[in-house]
Amino acid sequence: MQEIVIVVGAGTMGAGIACVAARAGYIVEIVEPDAAARERGRARIERDASRGGDAASVLARIRWSDAVPERSEAAIAIEAVPERLELKRAVFAQLARALDPQALLATNTSSLAVAEIASGVPAPDRVVGLHFFNPPVAMKLVEIVEIEQTSDDALAAARAFVARLEKTAVVTADTPGFIVNRVARPFYLQAMRALDRGVASVEELDALARGAGFRMGPFELMDMIGLDVNLATSESVYERVGAARLEPQAMQRALVEQGRLGRKSGIGFYDYANGDPERLELVPEGPSEEKIDECVTVIGFGAAADALVEELEARYADVRRVENDELLDEISPETTIAIDVGDGVSDRAEILAELDTLLAPEAIVACDAYATDLAAATRKMKHPDRVVGYGVLGALASQRVVEIVDFEKSSDDALAVAQELFEALGKGVVLVEDVPGLFLGRVVGAIVNEAVIAVQENVATPDDIDLAMRLGVNYPIGPLAWGREIGGARIAQILRRVAKDDGDAFAPHRALWVLDADDGEDADEPIDVPMERPVL
Ligand code: NAD
What we know:
single chain; alpha/beta; Rossmann fold; 3 domains; 8-stranded mixed beta sheet; 21 helices; binds nicotinamide-adenine-dinucleotide
């Protein structure tokens, strides 16, 4: 006997889920009371199924009705009706009456508490959330939401169902935004904070995000999602979590009030009146054949400095290294460009001051602007105009665009030299304002921090969080793995600086250190987060 799945609601999600389930061999009964919505749903399924080349077999397995049946043999029911608690509760009550008590009862809610939808349902041990992503036919991820009462059998049935649909399941607690909509919040919110602070233009910030590996920048993505839809998600997560770091931005509210909703309204952060706006692609000119005639000295230890030296050696005639701050006075007086990579964690004011006394007056000093406060560091320097700040977050190789600080004291020459240097290494360059965390430090740092908080709050396992963010929103790497690559202590330093400016709500979580705890072979093991460890 073929198993039956009931899908309630044939909108964007219901129709997609029905198509996927029918494709996997289930008999699908779609409940949709609205005749016009039924037609739209049918057309959507036909279109999706014919794209998959299996229209006939998919459609043959689908039945339509306008109400939940009195009795059903279905093994699984998924509701995908509009996001209204009372409506979902009513639908769950009907399904609970119709189905066998062993049948799985699932909701596709994005923002409501699954437990609240299930309250009042007899035998809530069979309830789960099955949070599909839009469009369900294409998106590989399903978040299985476990409520307190969910039985092991129900969880196993949910996993088996998702696997049969050839999707990837992650398991999440019944917390606001589950994994993806929660951990992704800082991508949008911090990007808007950066825009608000005038860090760079929308186009430049999007280019920086793409350069760091995101498939789309935050602004073009919000335009695609719809600013109203994105704002509603932020509001719902914020209302339920109640943490100031997740507060929606006034800028976005204002745009929504003006009807600037993104692509669908023709204007959002970008203007679509004349078709797709051109993307800012920051591709440096091809490197010259000849090596650049400068003496570059890299100060720093560890992998970041090693990688930089290797890249520089291919482009510059004379590359040297100072591996230890203690050996700083051995720096070659011929140095024309000093790059202070440091340890990635400490503010390097003292080292910069020392370099200022050791180097020829015309030498340029480039430093890590994520860790170091440029204004404070240059205050007592004799030649502050030689200092230029840059941002390389983690591995140099994984960042195609680098932010260089348009610091008020940096000379034009220093800025030009730094720009030429990163372009020679094949990187695009964006000049940004001197705001703590710049853009990528602030955004990526806050995402990693949110992921660490999610681990702390037992939202999901570290592995599931990473998997969910890669599959659900196409992050180039899971946020916890990314955090390990950048370093927990480095992110903590960046966020401490951000918090000094933006407030304590943006301070690093004290558990960030765990990202550095497993540096060796166990780096992929789930993070065990003992609460009593020292505050960073
Ligand atoms: P939608 O408005 O496109 O579809 C909802 C459908 O439910 C409509 O066709 C409506 O006629 C039908 N409906 C209304 N009352 C009904 C009832 N009593 N019985 C049966 N059908 C009824 O909405 P959607 O975008 O598909 O969202 C559905 C659910 O999925 C919501 O909970 C939403 O939060 C969630 N979700 C949406 C997305 C997304 O990107 N759209 C992604 C993930 C989850």
